[in-house]
Amino acid sequence: GDADAVCREIAAAAHAFKLVARSGVHPRRVVFDQPLSAVRLAVLRQQLAVAQQAGLLTALHEIWEPQPDDPSSAIARLLGELRSPRTLAWIEGVTSVAVDECQASAVPRFRYGHYVDPPSDRLIKFGKRRRIAFVLFCSYDPSLLGGGHLVLLRPDGETAVSIEPRVNRLALLDVDRIHRHRVPEITVEGGERLAIPGFFCVTPQGA
Questions:
Q1: Are 113 and 186 contacting, i.e. CB atoms less than 8 angstroms apart?
Q2: What is the DSSP secondary structure assignment for residue 13, as one 8-state letter?
Q3: What angle in degrees, to the nearest 10, is found between the helix axes of 2-12 and 74-82?
Q4: What is 32-83 written as a DSSP string?
Q5: For residue 164, which of 177, 189, 183 has the smallest C-alpha distance?
Q6: Phi, psi (5° rounding) for residue 34?
Q7: Which range among 15-29, 96-110, 117-131 shows the weakest confidence by mean pLDDT?
Q8: Maximum CA pair distance of the chain?
Q9: At what angle do helices 85-95 and 74-82 cross, to 10 degrees?
Q10: What is the Cα–Cα distance from 199 to 105, expressed in whole angstroms?
Q11: Closest Cα to residue 104, out of 8, 195, 13?
Q12: I need a labelling partner for 162 at 20 to 30 A (CA). Which of 52, 70, 136, 207 fits?
């Protein structure tokens, strides 16, 4: 029931998603508040392709940031549950890592031509060190043929495992062991992949 409510809320927010592009050694996010014309989108894709050829990390997808304090929102309730002491304790029980915070606030949407190059998930942000990355999938589209999968990478850059998006599937990643992942480009017209990603964090020693 909760999963269905989350999916319905995401579907209802279809026009609230904004295009996001990233590029750089440590990719910075650029959010486009208005939809791009076909010409501007083609130019953006060309710029990202040039950046890739130069060895930079890039990404292109859409994002929606729901209101976090809306009591009527199924997603707000889900995000609150992810941050709750009960969930933090469950993560510790599953992973043996004593996490003390969950960082998650947005819903990415991947459609035709969208992808993410493999950045490193190792980062200290807002005074917390990312320790367990997660992705909670909110859609299933068997037509994607591997596009939109969560692909975890070995240190040599080869694929360690490819995780197919399935509704309500939760993927957990110990970033001290495998800290790079990518989302292969969706090459199917009309394909879509929805998920809620985030990080369970720890307080760095000496903080």
A1: yes
A2: T
A3: 120
A4: ESSPPPHHHHHHHHHHHHHHHHTT-EEEEEEEE---TT-TT-HHHHHHHHHT
A5: 183
A6: -120, 150
A7: 117-131
A8: 51
A9: 50
A10: 10
A11: 195
A12: 52
Please, what is the end-to-end C-alpha distance for the chain in angstroms? 40
What token pair was written down for 206? 């000496």
Report the C-alpha gap between 84 and 181 in whole angstroms: 26
Q: What are the tokens at 30?
A: 């650029």
**In this structure, how many other beta carbons lie within 10 angstroms of the beta carbon of residue 66?**
20
Distance CA 156, CA 133 (A): 20
SS3 53: helix
pLDDT digits (tens, 9 = 90+) for 33-92: 999 999 999 999 999 999 999 989 999 999 999 887 788 889 989 999 999 999 999 999
Give me 119's structure tokens: 């950045």
pLDDT for 51 equals 93
The four Cα atoms 94, 95, 97, 102 give a dihedral, to 10 degrees, of: -70
Q: In the prediction, which pLDDT does 153 show? A: 87
Task: Output the pLDDT for position 154.
Answer: 83
What would the two tokens of residue 105 be? Answer: 């606030």
Please tell me whether residue 101 adopts helix, strand or coil conformation.
strand
Determine the Cα–Cα distance for residues 207 and 205; give it in Å rounded to an integer. Answer: 6
| Percent over 90 (pLDDT), the chain | 55
d(CA 113, CA 59): 10
